Amino acid sequence: MTDAIKYEAVIDLAARNNSHTLLHELAVADGRAHLSVLEVGCSSGYLGASLVARGHRVTGVEPDPASAQAAARVLSEVWNGGLDDYLAAHPEARFDVLIFGDVLEHMVDPADALRNALRHLREGGSVAISLPNIAHGSVRAMLLQGRWDYAQRGIMDHTHLRFFTRGTIAQLLADCGLRLERLYEVVVEVPEVDADYAMGLSRELVTAVELLDDDDSRHAFQYVLRATPSTQSADALVSANRAIPAERPEALKRIPGAGSFKQRMQVKLFRALLKSISKRRWRGVT
């Protein structure tokens, strides 16, 4: 057994292309002072501590004993255990903000957890959530190699039970009666993810992913959002949630030659070749 804490980070609120910074911003977006915040999966309390430092009260829920012990030193209150157990033990607890920072993907039933927590959200309250994007270009390239390799951290963290894309996030929120108010994508380009997580991606297949990415979504490593309860139907909410554009906290690094006339022609030729091959492959098939 080890007391090592797996998920830790240093909060730099000036670094905006970061899920922790964006969660902090979205949690305090309405400008109110002395918020009561429930942070689910608070780890050692590094995110909540940034809110406590600004006068807010943060209750952390954390199943890992070592992490909960560390969080207790910096948060207002910490429950060492699961979310359902905490809420059952505190039926009258009410919060202005619920934070699920890279937590829902670890749960068997994320929608049920969200719905349960929402019963403890005060009127006018909001939810701040971050989720990894399983449709990131690195995962697409890995799948083209016929691989699905788990890792210790990142999008392919071996403890992830559920996987999300931009579309399924919109559906999850709608299923829980939540309307998306603001959406950010934390941008990490494919070569950087490949190097950081030792994914061993084929450069040719990464290039293929780049050429086939019509909506430029391959760069979204995480989605970070703010949502509020709504009385609209689930169908109406799905449409509304999908219509919210994803913002980037910083611009992509420009790659030499990207978007040039030569590259645009290469993309056009590649797609024409793929279309021709596909046409022959499916000839006579209805």
TrEMBL record:
Pfam families, sorted: Methyltransf_23 (PF13489)
The organism's place on the tree of life at top rank: Bacteria
Keyword hit for Transferase: yes
Iron is among the record's keywords: no
Full protein name: Methyltransferase type 11
Keywords carried by this UniProt record: Methyltransferase, Transferase
Lineage: Bacteria, Pseudomonadati, Pseudomonadota, Gammaproteobacteria, Lysobacterales
GO biological process, one term: methylation
One Gene Ontology molecular-function label: methyltransferase activity
